[in-house]
Design brief:
67 residues, mainly alpha, 0% strand
Length: 67
């Protein structure tokens, strides 16, 4: 998993240079890492049960509270 995260970070730096953490790509990297951690722990990475809430509202710490 660490190797995958490093590849994502390398891509993020390549596309947005020194401001990569402020870019959308940085947010996508964080979501990917959270999903991968959930999979590694044997949990479903889709923490929201309703399709519209999964699609239109961002994941927050409360969504991961019951792990």
């Amino acid at each position: 998993m660490e190797e995958t995260a490093k590849k994502w970070e390398k891509n993020a730096r390549a596309y947005s240079h020194e401001n990569y953490k402020r870019a959308c790509v940085g947010a996508m990297l964080q979501i990917h890492c959270n999903d991968q951690l959930c999979r590694d722990m044997g949990c479903d990475p889709r923490r929201k049960k309703w399709l519209l809430s999964r699609t239109f509202s961002p994941y927050q710490p409360q969504d991961y509270a019951n792990l």
